[in-house]
């Protein structure tokens, strides 16, 4: 299957490879910030091109338990065990740097409680146990490793709702401790933060569950190494550090306008999904089961233009290339890189292309397509929208900007997504100089399919579903 997929991807690229150099020259001139690698255009990463949220706020509460100290929270003896519980809370600002690594700036506050459970004799009648409590504040910088994204198999297509994280980092720890015995309670020690000896280390793991696109729940267990022998309130002549566990339950709120957070995305799965879509178009690339009637090198099974003129260069979907998007394919276009009307063989005239009045005979409004679950305008669609700007500004009528989707999600979700797509295109046109009064953004969800037979989406090849994910224009 991997060999077949690779051959298929290569075959889809070959039909338009000959036109790549011409296209690159045009694209580089049209988009001055576009950089060419010689075979493809690479667009700069900007704030608008981001697809995922990468900031979050986390908060939680829990129970700290002192484990290695003279006074412990947990003590097991021959007669049984005893535990004294404290309380803790944390608040952090989280930044995902990649899908597998991030940073946390975390503030912890709490109180540990501990006791000296060993008494002077077995029946515990000769002396009362000593009790202690420590109030602490900590500020830490933690590294966050998404182990699930590192260990998850790329062919695992199950819903991604659980994630195992590992945390480790350093910080500063300030505390005040108290001892209570038969003489009453007294303050025995105090350490200010950001002083020599107040630095500590903490590390642990957390299990996250994705409640929805905005909220995650997490159970976390951390181990705090204080590096201080006085944390429990007892000073003994030893070099032992008083350390404790902190078990917490918390929530994470993902900040941003995008649908998903970067930590819930695995780029390898996305790549393999796209390759699977290509592979499903034809299980056997060596044979075109439905033939290639127009001899354009693209099998009729996924050819979107079955009557391509002989000699025309085509893209991977079998559609004749139109480099300048003027409606005249390159085979018949005498000005391949400059838009022009059909009646002038694709070359500019003294009419509309040079500032004259644009009419229905020389220019038509075209629609644009969108990526799956996205309302982002692709850079390749800006020439089409710029043509629409010229047309709308030169005509007196008003227009509807109509958004649509495929049928993959629910009706309500698709309705919202289609409205967002229509709003995005309308806002783009308004920013480029079109009067907002001439435009009305309308979302029609999956009720206005270009290919009505694609319900459900699994009945159609991917190019038909993509054609349904569109925005187009209609006169009011």
UniProtKB/TrEMBL annotation:
Residues 357-476 form the OmpA-like domain. Coiled coil: none annotated. GO terms for biological process: monoatomic ion transport. The keyword Transmembrane applies. It is a multi-pass membrane protein. Residues 1-20 form the signal peptide. It holds the Pfam family OmpA. GO terms for molecular function: calcium ion binding; porin activity. Keywords: Cell outer membrane, Ion transport, Membrane, Porin, Signal, Transmembrane, Transmembrane beta strand, Transport. It is found in: Cell outer membrane. InterPro entries: Bact_OuterMem_StrucFunc, OMP/PagP_B-barrel, OMP_bac, OmpA-like, OmpA-like_sf, TSP_type-3_rpt. One of its GO terms (cellular component) is cell outer membrane. This is OmpA family protein. It comes from Marnyiella aurantia.
């Amino acid at each position: 299957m991997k060999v077949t997929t690779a051959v298929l991807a290569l075959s889809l690229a070959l039909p338009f490879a000959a036109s790549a150099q011409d296209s690159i020259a045009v694209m580089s001139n049209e988009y001055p910030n576009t950089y060419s690698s010689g075979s493809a255009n690479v667009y700069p990463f900007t704030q608008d091109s981001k697809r995922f949220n990468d900031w979050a706020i986390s908060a939680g509460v829990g129970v700290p338990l002192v484990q290695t100290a003279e006074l412990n929270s947990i003590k097991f003896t021959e007669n049984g065990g005893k535990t004294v519980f404290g309380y803790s809370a944390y608040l952090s600002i989280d930044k995902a740097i990649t899908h597998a690594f991030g940073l946390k700036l975390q503030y912890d506050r709490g109180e540990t409680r501990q006791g000296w459970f060993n008494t002077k004799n077995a029946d515990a009648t000769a002396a009362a146990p000593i009790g202690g409590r420590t109030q602490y504040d900590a500020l830490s910088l933690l590294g966050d490793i998404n182990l699930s994204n590192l260990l998850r198999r790329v062919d695992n297509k199950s819903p991604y709702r659980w994630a195992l994280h590992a945390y480790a980092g350093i910080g500063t720890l300030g505390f005040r401790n108290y001892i209570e015995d038969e003489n009453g309670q007294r303050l025995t020690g105090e350490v200010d933060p950001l002083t020599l000896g107040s630095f500590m280390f903490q590390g642990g793991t957390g299990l996250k569950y994705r409640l929805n696109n905005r909220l995650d729940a997490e159970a976390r267990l951390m181990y705090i190494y204080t590096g201080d022998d006085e944390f429990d309130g007892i000073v003994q002549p030893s070099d032992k550090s008083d350390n404790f566990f902190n078990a917490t339950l918390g929530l994470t709120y993902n900040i941003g306008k995008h649908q998903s957070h970067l930590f819930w995305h695995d780029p390898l799965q996305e790549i393999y999904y796209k390759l699977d879509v290509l592979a499903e178009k034809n299980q056997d690339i060596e044979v075109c089961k439905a033939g290639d009637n127009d001899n354009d090198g693209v099998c009729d099974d996924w050819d979107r233009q079955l009557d391509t003129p002989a000699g025309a260069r085509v893209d991977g979907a079998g559609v004749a290339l139109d480099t300048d998007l003027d409606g005249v394919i390159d085979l018949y276009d005498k000005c391949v890189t400059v838009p022009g009307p059909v009646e002038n063989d694709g070359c500019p005239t003294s009419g509309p292309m040079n500032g004259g009045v644009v009419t229905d005979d020389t220019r038509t409004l075209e629609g644009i397509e969108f990526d799956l679950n996205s309302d982002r305008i692709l850079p390749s669609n800006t020439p089409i929208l710029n043509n629409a700007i010229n047309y709308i500004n030169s005509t007196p009528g008003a227009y509807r900007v109509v958004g649509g989707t495929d049928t993959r999600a629910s009706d309500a979700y698709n309705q919202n997504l289609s409205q967002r797509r229509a709003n995005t295109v309308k806002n783009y046109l308004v920013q480029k100089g079109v009067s907002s009064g001439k435009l009305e953004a309308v979302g029609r969800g999956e009720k206005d399919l270009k290919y009505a037979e694609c319900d459900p989406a699994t009945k159609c090849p991917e190019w038909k579903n993509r054609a349904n994910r569109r925005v187009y224009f209609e006169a009011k």
